[in-house]
Amino acid sequence: QKEVEQNSGPLSVPEGAIASLNCTYSDRGSQSFFWYRQYSGKSPELIMFIYSNGDKEDGRFTAQLNKASQYVSLLIRDSQPSDSATYLCAASSGSARQLTFGSGTQLTVLP
Amino acid sequence: SQTIHQWPATLVQPVGSPLSLECTVEGTSNPNLYWYRQAAGRGLQLLFYSVGIGQISSEVPQNLSASRPQDRQFILSSKKLLLSDSGFYLCAWSPGPYNEQFFGPGTRLTVL
Do the Cβ atoms of A102 and B51 come within 8 Å? Predict the structure, then answer.
């Protein structure tokens, strides 16, 4: 059974700090990995995706992938109170590249 | 640009009643389409996906069914709702090839 595990949190960081979110996956056949942000009561919003080992940066966000360790992470630099949300990690696999989601990590950025 | 619509936004239904939720995508053709359910405080569970008209794959045996009558339309149905069907139903589309999925605004369903 394909699984994606995340620390449920909650994770609290002060404004301006780096927030580090982690995720592991069980299916070695997973091809791509995604980070979504979900505000309370809203639908998930895509932040980044990564499919190659290493780092991928987009503004204040950096995704890191280590396929040997089956580990994905998301770093948020200069965290802002508006970053407070639940962050969902997902891995894609299968013919239609279906996504398997983790249960999410709740992040609170304290002003 | 592409837009995904879902309706209704909220729905309260009695146990045993039928269900029909609709999802449409604009601005793209032949998308992959997905239905997810998110129970309160939980992660997203993939229910169905479709790679083309009339092609439906089910991920989880359940009280629900899906149909894709047109290229950009995806419908989630039930003949008789259960209490356990309550949740936040999300439709998503994907353009490929790296399968980034984009979610619609969702339908919040409460079964009483």
Answer: no
Supply the pLDDT for residue B83. Answer: 94
Tell if the CB–CB gap between A96 and B106 is shorter than 8 Å: no
Which residue from B minimizes the CA distance to A52?
A: B98
Q: Quick check: B87 and B39 in contact, CB under 8 A? A: yes
Say whether pLDDT at A8 is over 80: no
Cis peptide before A10 (omega within 30 of 0): yes
Q: Is B96 on the interface with A (CB under 8 A)?
A: yes
pLDDT digits (tens, 9 = 90+) for A56-65: 999 999 999 9
Cβ-count burial of B21 within 10 angstroms (0-12 exposed, 13-18 middle, 19+ buried)? buried
Q: In what order do the strands lie in the sheet with A4-6?
A: A4-6, A19-25, A71-76, A61-66, A54-58
Are A100 and B46 inside 8 Å of each other by CB? yes
Amino acid, res. A43: S
Collapse the DSSP code of B85 into the 3-class scheme (helix H, G, I; strand E, B; otherwise coil) and give the result. helix
